[in-house]
Specification:
- It is built from two helices and 26 strands.
- By secondary structure, the chain is mainly β.
- It has a single domain, classed as Neuraminidase.
- The strands form seven sheets. Strands 1, 2, 3, 4, 5 and 26 form a six-stranded antiparallel beta sheet that branches. It has a four-stranded antiparallel beta sheet with strand order 6-7-8-9, with no helix packed on it. The chain has a four-stranded antiparallel beta sheet with strand order 10-11-14-15, with no helix packed on it.
- The radius of gyration is 20 Å and the shape is globular.
- It starts with a helix and ends with a strand.
- It catalyses: a ribonucleoside 5'-triphosphate + 2 H2O = a ribonucleoside 5'-phosphate + 2 phosphate + 2 H(+).
Length: 351
């Protein structure tokens, strides 16, 4: 009972403290130019029944992001290729460029960690990527990264960078989310709700902070998970066609968080929610592979937000790998899990 009392005291204090913070109360600055809606950035190619799209994926190398040869330098890999979609045969294939991935470098870090890039998105005619250590949002230009915005953890009034994990476009605004679970100790004891905030960015680089505890709880309840069970998110996409949120969780567990067991708590659900998270539905979408979890996904252009291409990653006993797959929202497999590399790529976009 003592531990329960402590938890309830901490929870009540945190709820009071966050309620006193400024959350999305100011309006956006006025902008004089229209939003650049170009997407993808590269023209698609059409041949017979197939459509070919340029794609890119970005690496999160964790501690290996620190350059072994240059001081104060952190690296990531930007791998490019083509996605071929055949709507007649209901199939997808991937062709990766023969040349090695582009090495992106930056001197910026937080406590000796940096360039652990977690997502890619085209926004306002630019390609953005997100460092889940420093909180930096970079623009990728001419195979180089240029800092644009810095996101801070929790309500924004902290000294820790936001752990960006998923990002999507909604009504010309960027929504950037983190893990979507309570921050806990390695043994699962509650510490804060900081990873359950969402950052909203406009085309001027202004940031608003939204507390999404209720939304994240609604998503995990769709498959019967309640605290101390958890769900970890690394991919979320808003569909402007369906006016729905779509989530492919990376981890799902009805038990309390455990750092070791988490490696085999992969998830195979597609969860959808209306704009208000009042109607939330879940369906099993692919075969469950406990060591694999979704890290990023995008709707294939021109499919009415019905066909998805996704990255899955595994981190098990110190080894990492990335797989790519494609499927429809009703579960029809267009491309089975296919190994990309024995590195961890966490961001995917049509470029």
């Amino acid at each position: 009972m003592t531990n329960l009392r402590i938890f309830l005291i901490v929870l009540c204090y945190y709820n009071w403290w966050t309620s006193t913070q400024v959350v999305s109360v100011r309006g956006w600055a006025r902008t004089e130019r229209p939003y650049n809606s170009t997407y993808p950035l590269t023209q698609q190619l059409v041949a017979r029944d197939a459509v070919k799209y340029r794609i890119g994926i970005i690496a999160d190398l964790d501690k290996d992001s620190k350059s072994p040869s240059k001081s104060n330098t952190y690296i990531s890999y930007f791998k490019k290729g083509y996605l071929n979609y055949n709507p007649v045969q209901q199939s997808v294939s991937i062709e990766w460029d023969l040349k090695p991935p582009t090495v992106l470098t930056s001197p910026y870090s937080h406590k000796g960690r940096g360039m652990e890039l977690s997502e890619l998105i085209v926004y306002d005619g630019r390609l953005l990527t997100f460092d889940d250590r420093s909180g930096l949002v970079y623009i990728i230009e001419n195979d180089k990264v240029v800092p644009w915005v810095i996101l801070m953890d929790g309500n924004g009034h902290t000294i820790k960078g936001f752990k960006s994990e998923w990002v999507t476009l909604k009504d010309n605004l960027l929504y950037v989310g983190s893990m979507g679970k309570e921050w806990t100790t390695p043994g699962g004891e509650f510490q804060s709700y900081d990873p359950m905030w969402v950052k909203v960015i406009n085309m001027n680089g202004e940031v608003q902070h939204q507390l999404w505890v209720v939304q994240y709880q609604a998503v995990r309840r769709a498959i019967g998970i309640n605290w101390p069970g958890y769900m970890i998110h690394e991919s979320g996409v808003w569909s402007p066609i369906k006016r729905q949120w779509h989530f492919l969780p990376r981890r799902c567990s009805r038990d309390a968080y455990n750092e070791t067991k988490d490696e085999v708590n992969g998830c195979n659900y597609l969860i959808t929610a209306d704009d208000d998270f009042k109607i939330v539905e879940a369906k099993e979408i692919t075969r469950l592979e406990p060591k694999l979890g979704f890290s990023s996904f995008k709707f294939i252009p021109g499919t009415g937000d019905e066909a998805i291409v996704a990255l899955k990653t595994t981190e098990f006993e110190g080894q990492t790998s990335t797989y790519i797959s494609a499927f429809t929202t009703d579960g029809n497999v267009l491309l089975p899990d296919t190994l990309v590399e024995n590195k961890k790529y966490e961001g995917l976009e049509f470029i």
